């Protein structure tokens, strides 16, 4: 279940309403997995979209209510409520992430990490590429 929603989140184009089937899947996920589904859903969900979260700068599911208000929700927390995830799949504190802290497990993320795939970190070999020391 986790992989289904994770892959969907990372492949669906941003700011495009999801299709009818995915709409039903996300609505069921909210109803069964969210801590306060009635409050989150409000007067009804008109659409779901994938958007960039304004604070965390990552892809996130958003619901657009019938009154045109929009709100994000964590598919991860919903899935965890239905089917508890292994401890290593739990996210670090949202407050820590918002303040620039990193998990350190994703592609050069974290503070001062040298691993990962490209990005700022030098390609995963001690920050110097394949040949040891950096060359001009």
How would you summarize the topology of this molecule?
Layout: H1 2-11, H2 20-33, H3 37-41, E1 45-52, E2 59-65, E3 70-73, H4 75-82, H5 94-98
Antiparallel strand pairs: 1-2, 2-3
Helix pairs in contact: 2-4
Report a brief summary of the structure.
By secondary structure, the chain is of the alpha+beta class.
What keywords describe this structure?
Nuclear Transport Factor 2, Chain: A; alpha+beta; single chain; 3-stranded antiparallel beta sheet; DCL-like; 31% helix; Protein DCL, chloroplastic
Notes on the structure:
Helices cover 31% and strands 14% of the residues. It is of the alpha+beta class. The chain has a domain at 2-82: Nuclear Transport Factor 2, Chain: A (Roll), CATH 3.10.450. It has a 3-stranded antiparallel β-sheet with strand order 1-2-3.
- CATH class group of the domain at 2-82: Alpha Beta
What would you say the CATH architecture of the domain at 2-82 is?
Answer: Roll
Q: Residue-averaged pLDDT, rounded?
A: 78
Instruction: Supply the helix-strand structural class.
Output: alpha+beta
Radius of gyration of CA atoms, rounded to a whole number: 18 Å
Structure summary, number of beta strands: 3
Low-confidence stretches: 95-119, 121-130, 132-136
CATH topology of the domain at 2-82: Nuclear Transport Factor 2, Chain: A
What amount of the residues lies in strands?
Answer: 5-15%
The largest β sheet comes out as:
3 strands, antiparallel
